TrEMBL record:
Designated name of the protein: Uncharacterized protein
Record's compositionally biased regions (Low complexity): 63-76
Organism: Bacteroides graminisolvens
Basic and acidic residues: bias regions: 1-28, 35-49
Compositionally biased tracts (Basic residues): 50-62
Stretches the record annotates as Disordered: 1-76
Amino acid sequence: TKASKAEAARKAKEEEKLAKKALADKKKAEAKKKKAEEAAKKKEAAKKEAAKKKAATKKVATKKTATQKAVASKKK
């Protein structure tokens, strides 16, 4: 009958709408996850860079100290 066909069409439309929404939600979730992963990578890279700088600073400081010691021993 006409009524049952209309009802079936309405249900099909509704299901399609829900499927589209689910797909959109899934894409949003994936994008959010990807963004979080990239942020974590950047944070890790920044941590490593800071550690490198700290190590380099430490080496320079050690070299200066060694040089200062050599100068001090020559003065004696």
